Amino acid sequence: MKRILAGLCLTTAMSLSAPAFAETKTVGVSIPAATHGWAGGMNYFAQEAVKRLEATYPDLDFVLATASDPAKQVNDIEDMVATRNISALVVLPFESEPLTGPVKAVADAGVWVTVVDRGLSVEGIEDLYVAGDNPGFGRVAGEFVAGALPEGGKVVVLRGIPTTIDNERVEGFQAALEGSSVEILAMEHGNWNRDKAFEVMQDFLSKYPQIDAVWASDDDMSVGALAAIEAAGRKDVKFVLGGAGMKEMIARTRDGDAMIPANVTYPPAMIATAIEVTALGLVSSAPVSGRFVIGSVLVTPENAAQYYFPDSPF
Amino acid sequence: MTAPLQPSSPPPAAFAPRRRISMTVVGPILALILLAALGAWLNPNFLSAANITNVLARSAFIGIIAVGMTFVITAGGLDLSVGSMAAFIAGLMIMVMNAALPSLGVGIPIVLLGMGAALLAGLLAGLLNGLLITRLGIEAFIVTLGSMGIYRSLVTWLADGGTLSLDFQLRSFYQPIYYGGIFGVSWPIIVFGLVAVLGEIVMRSTVFGRWCAAIGSNEQVAKYSSVRVARVRLATYVMLGLLVGLAVIMYVPRLGSASASTGLLWELEAIAAVIIGGTLLKGGFGRVWGTVVGVLILSLIGNILNLTDLVSPYLNGAIQGLIIVLAVILQREGKPGA
Rounded mean pLDDT of A181-185? Predict the structure, then answer.
């Protein structure tokens, strides 16, 4: 035991002294704060990736900053460049427009830039772009709904916060339903929020005597919609299709809950992909520039187990 | 009891220097009736028992808080922290109940424990706001802006950025507090009604209500009339904190969860409801029944917009803003430039 401890101390000492010999590179990671479920998951996976990489590559340093608004994020990035002399920046922009200028300035200074999920408003700034597939997210959901209601049916849609992301998803969904006999009764913004989704769903249930399915488009909104349906005691709603893969919902799909027959992924872990690939580019000669689009996958009872992450907060 | 302020003047009019029947009284009610008529005309389901229950029950959280806010604003204060405070207390209550589950099991005691924890947390949070404002003399706006950020961060931290969820069995047991009721009236509506009636009585017919108005209209005069300004003002914040706790008791059984997005903007909705109801934002005059009407107006707008396809959902916020401003204009008759 003592010898193991001594060994541990020695390796720690070595890894501590390593920066003195090898050239240490610092990677800045700037992400929005955990203000809703998906962002909470994203924060978790970012921290996990940083922890893993710091252990794996002793000559890589990481600075992780979370911002609650775009202005704070700009400050974070400026601080990273000014005080930490970062070699690479991994950024998930809070909003595209306000972050474009500051991130471009970082790129112009010769720092490697990886942009995640939300693209900047000018193309060609970033060296690597890692993103989810929003039109695909909507398309996969639409295809599932069309397949699940072969005789046709009436569907209501809960939309997210009005953004490009939401628009792309809804367009993908509508495109996938074209030609099928599924009718979209109404779409209303539930803002990716449980309470808002609960109220909107209650009102949909008052408004329409027959609803066959709900595309909640997000698992936080599924929670609200399911509670509203349950409280109203309505048996006509056959299923609620959420999205983004909240662990509780994945578990219910895995266990064969008929109300939640499937899910569509939009993994918050894409931030980990971005950090890992950026680190790979710094420590090896493997080329990593370009675009990395993470597909949205349909989760069914058969494959749900592999999308269940018990430790993630989302 | 020391008699405050000019006992010779006619009591009810003392702090309501307005004409008896004027638009200030009729305005909010008129707006509510117009909205209800519009809703009924646009969608026959609007007046169904289920829809009315939905709207009243979902108004209850903001409504209970807004009644407390009426007192705070009447006494010349403001509380921006109530939304975050509600989220924090909801998170705390869920954690307390989950933690006590192994020892207490599912049953009445654990629900009572949760309720007690929520009320206690509300009381302490209100006390903290109140003490900072009255003892240290910091602006209410700044104190509660600070505590708003603190509680919002705390709930995010407690939930580790995700969502705090009540144990599933416990939630099923506790659920009837939101969805159940007696004689077809659900509990949130009953509690909201009781709070509103009690609030109206306290505001109108008790010394405390008059003290609030006196402090709000002129703090110095109130002080010289031997009103214990700091103590009364502190009491308004404590009462508001308790009511936030009560609102959370009604809120948690609905979805059984709390996250960083719980109670977002509740403070502004509560303040808007108070002002629509005819309470003066600068203090000195408060009307609890008006606040209730204000809360109902706000939730009716959302409900009607969902029940109809009149406007693009992108414009919902604009319609809401428009109706809020219109409702306030309706009651400004006879006070141009005020």
Answer: 92
